[in-house]
Write a structure and sequence with these properties.
Number of helices: 4
Number of domains: 3
Helix content: under 10%
Structural class: mainly beta
Strand content: 35-45%
Oligomer: single chain
Shape: elongated
Largest sheet: 5 strands, antiparallel
Length: about 450
């Protein structure tokens, strides 16, 4: 329930724009500042409401509210930006964290190519808050049994904050009687570690801050811990994994856009044809990020390798684009997996370019036709590898074979312009061992390092 705090100045029509540009709006563009009220709960959250009464002839490029401690506030002061609009009617902005027990002046505004138009002015006296005003920050660094979450004390209230932190529970609206972690005192941002969480579980969390008058809570957030075998890249994308023989493989194509140390991988949209053999680049199929899950990103070989030299050891030694604790598979590691699922060792080790292991490709392919074209020959996904047909991008910049082929880089160089790959096809059940041009965009699956624990938690 909201308690209205109307502080209305004398209102005699509309106050037009006073800014660096003064204009008479064509087509009678009118706005009003309608109301100011404080959210219930004494949290220092205020909501401004205004109305666009008539749309003029000029396009509205921006609208919102501006406020200040002085009269006639403008967009050089604090303001909200609600963006473009082409419709009449009311609009609302919510603010928090303003100085307590202070008179503020508020005006609505719209911006067009002609200038800025302001609505009438209203004033309000911010509440002398007793308890703190606190905001909950998002959860990150989530693993199977831990996470990091935080908060921000925006206002301390009538006395200093002596206790602050985050509380969490598997039930909604956790409070300080539930599990909690504390960090510091006073205003500002902070973060805490949430430990001993359950596997594959949804948690609810709220930041809290306490002063002499009581405890205040921020908004509730929720997050889910990893299921068994899951891990994350540095962008926060979570992947399942599968054990095949003595190896642990990703079950989904990699879609990270940064290296593990945070360096960005260049996204190349229109200039792919101009890339050199050594160019680092990634893209999404058809340059559309909606293909990121489940098809993943397409990487050049240099991006996948991140400058490392060709390597065909087993276990592999090239982390490349893979997350910490994982690496780009070598050709020998692919052979180990192929032999485990039934390929003759001599056939697995054949350096001939082509398809081999009849029937074994189907053991790696996801079943059905959601991510493969019909007939998706002999697909059983017996291994749990769950290959999808992510296609490729050629050095000519063209996208190819989505739904038809799955192609994966290895860390082994074929020659100065090509590198070894593995491939699967929608209309047969072989595993193709071949090579592709290093400047092509190709999918990546990573293999876990042998000295990393199964949970991959750091």
């Amino acid at each position: 329930m909201r308690q209205w705090l109307e502080y209305i100045l004398v209102f005699s029509g509309i106050l037009f724009a006073i800014s660096c540009v003064r204009f008479e709006p064509r087509g009678f563009l009118f706005i009003t500042t309608d109301s100011v009220y404080m959210d219930s709960g004494d949290k220092g959250i205020y909501e401004f409401e205004g109305t666009i009464l008539n749309i003029g002839e000029e396009e509205i490029k921006q609208h919102g509210f501006c406020w200040a401690e002085t009269q006639r506030p403008n967009t050089w002061d604090s303001y909200t930006d609600l963006g473009q609009t082409n419709t009449k009617g009311s609009f609302i902005s919510t603010i928090e964290g303003v100085k307590a027990h202070t008179t503020f002046y508020v005006r609505s505004f719209v911006t067009t190519s002609e200038g800025i138009l302001y609505g009438n002015e209203k004033s309000f006296i911010s509440s002398a808050l007793s308890i703190p005003t606190v905001r909950t920050l998002s959860a990150n660094h989530i693993t199977s049994n831990s996470a990091v979450c935080g908060g921000e004390v925006l206002l301390e209230g009538v006395s200093s904050v002596t206790r602050r932190g985050v509380c969490w529970s598997t039930d909604e609206l956790p409070d300080v009687s539930d599990q909690l972690a504390e960090e510091g005192e006073g205003p500002g941002s902070y973060s805490v570690g949430l430990e001993e969480l359950e596997l594959n579980t949804i948690y609810f969390a709220r930041a809290f801050a306490t002063n002499s008058e009581g405890t205040a809570y921020g908004d509730e957030i929720s997050f889910k811990t990893w299921a068994e075998g899951e891990f994350a890249d540095c962008d926060g994308n979570v992947y399942p994994s599968v054990v095949i023989g003595e190896q642990t493989w990703m079950k989904k194509n990699l879609r990270v856009t940064h290296y593990a140390d945070g360096r960005p991988i260049p996204e190349v949209i229109s200039d792919w044809v101009g890339l050199s053999t050594g160019s680092k680049a990634y893209c999404w199929q058809y340059n559309d990020s909606t293909y990121a899950d489940p098809y993943g990103a397409l990487y050049t070989w240099s991006a996948a390798m991140d400058g490392a030299g060709s390597n065909d050891s087993n276990p592999g030694e090239v982390q490349g684009v893979c997350p910490d604790g994982w690496h780009l598979p070598s050709d020998q590691e692919w052979q180990e997996m192929e032999i485990f699922i039934g390929m003759d060792p001599a056939e697995a080790d054949s350096l001939s370019y082509g398809e081999r292991g009849e029937g074994l490709g189907g053991r790696l392919k996801e079943t059905g036709y959601k991510h493969w074209r019909n007939p998706n020959s002999e697909a059983t996904n017996f291994t749990g590898f769950t290959a999808v047909a992510g296609g490729t991008r050629g050095i000519d910049g063209r996208f190819r074979s989505l739904g038809r082929n799955a192609t994966y880089w290895t860390s082994w160089e074929f020659n100065s312009t090509n590198a070894w790959i593995r491939g699967l096809n929608y209309n047969n059940s072989y595993i193709r061992r071949g090579y592709d041009t290093k400047g092509n965009g190709v999918s990546v699956r990573c293999v876990k390092d042998e000295d990393v624990t199964k949970s991959n938690e750091k």
